[in-house]
Structure formats: structure tokens, C-alpha cells
UniProtKB/TrEMBL annotation:
SUPFAM superfamilies: Coiled-coil domain of nucleotide exchange factor GrpE, Head domain of nucleotide exchange factor GrpE. One of its GO terms (biological process) is protein folding. HAMAP family: GrpE. The gene is grpE. GO terms for cellular component: cytoplasm. Residues 57-128 form a coiled coil. This is Protein GrpE. Its main location: cytoplasm. Residues 1-11 have a biased composition (Basic and acidic residues). It comes from Anaplasma ovis str. Haibei.
Length: 212
């Protein structure tokens, strides 16, 4: 015959399971047996590893940012070095050209006198003179040689007066041409690169309205 269990009506009203009910749950209001339980070795190991990983990630992030800053600094230094190198190259090239120009300027000035003498001889010789052809050939060869060294002859007949390369000896009235036109070249000028060795001596036009 089955054993009868006596249930206290008060316990039934309060929802307290009778002793030996077999559901394994602690009585309501009883303390949690897992509370305050210490973490086992595996949990401690996992927590320690996680903390170290976070520290390593933070350290690596700082190191990466530092490296990025250093790389950008080196890039800027490289840009400046390249710019300085280009500027230095241009400066050296300019100084070499100026030194070369200076070194031959005096020699060219001496040759200009020979060019003037040959040119004067050509003006005084007729085209059918036997000497004319020889003098013309010599003069052409000399002008060509000077041109090979960057020397240019300036004979601005019909051009506008340019005070950088021309020197006006006098003015003459000529209403058929704009004021400031070179009417006559008394003596040709010479330049080397952009340096004037001798300005061209010229007569420049002016209009009648500019007359006295």
C-alpha cells in the first residue's frame, strides 16, 4: 500500500515544495549555492590570455602609428632632398654656363674687330672684284664659327628699337614708318647667349609731330 504524504496547507499556499518532492530545486528563498564560487584554473588562464592579447594589440597599434609617422617624415625629407638636388643641379649648370660665357667673351670681343674689318672691306669691294669672293667666304666662316659658340650678330634694320640690344645714335623723321623703327644700322652688335657684347649702333625714326 502506497505511503501517503502529508502536505502542510500553509506550505501549499506559499508555493513551497514539500520535502522530498524530487525536482532537485532548492527551496524558494534559499541562497544560491554557486554564488561566491571561485574561478577555476581554466577560467583564470583564459582571462589572463585575454588581458595579455589586449595589451599586445594596444602596444602594436601604438608602434604602428609611430612607424607611420616616421615613414611620413622620411617621405617629406626625401621630397626636400630631391628638390634640393634639382635646385643644386640647375644652379651648378647656370654657373657653368656663366663661366663658359665669361671665358670666351673677351676672345669674342677681339674677333668682333676682325668681323668689322672684313665687313668694311666687303662694302668697299664690288661684287665682280676677285678679292670680294675670298673676303666674303672668310667673313661668312667667321660668323658661322661665332654662332657655333652661342654668339649672334645683331643687325636690326627695320625692327623696333630695343634698348637692351640697340644704342640709338640719333633720330630721323620718317612718317612712313612707326616711331622707333630702326632706319639704319651704323654698326652691327653682338650678343652671346643673352649677354650683350656690343650693342648695335642705330638711327631711329620719329614722326614729324615729334619734331621740335
Amino acid at each position: 500500500m502506497a505511503e501517503e504524504r502529508h502536505v502542510d496547507p500553509k506550505q501549499q499556499q506559499e508555493g513551497v515544495a514539500p520535502a522530498g518532492s524530487g525536482d532537485g530545486a532548492p527551496p524558494k528563498g534559499a541562497p544560491d549555492p554557486t554564488a561566491g564560487r571561485k574561478q577555476g584554473p581554466a577560467g583564470k588562464f583564459a582571462a589572463g590570455v585575454g588581458g595579455k592579447v589586449q595589451q599586445r594589440v594596444a602596444a602594436d597599434s601604438l608602434e604602428l602609428e609611430k612607424l607611420r609617422t616616421e615613414v611620413e617624415h622620411l617621405r617629406n625629407q626625401l621630397r626636400l632632398a630631391v628638390a634640393d638636388s634639382k635646385n643644386l643641379k640647375r644652379l651648378v649648370q647656370k654657373e657653368v654656363e656663366e663661366a663658359r660665357t665669361l671665358s670666351i667673351s673677351e676672345f669674342v670681343r677681339d674677333l668682333i674687330a676682325s668681323c668689322d674689318n672684313l665687313e668694311a672691306s666687303l662694302k668697299n669691294l664690288s661684287d665682280d672684284d676677285n678679292v670680294h669672293a675670298g673676303v666674303k667666304m672668310t667673313w661668312d666662316s667667321l660668323i658661322s664659327t661665332l654662332g657655333g659658340h652661342g654668339v649672334s650678330r645683331v643687325s636690326p634694320l627695320g625692327e623696333q628699337f630695343d634698348p637692351r640690344f640697340h644704342k640709338a645714335v640719333t633720330q630721323a623723321v620718317d612718317d612712313s614708318k612707326p616711331a622707333g623703327t630702326v632706319l639704319e644700322v651704323i654698326q652691327a652688335g653682338y650678343i652671346i647667349q643673352t649677354k650683350v657684347l656690343r650693342p648695335a649702333l642705330v638711327i631711329v625714326s620719329k614722326t614729324s609731330s615729334e619734331q621740335g
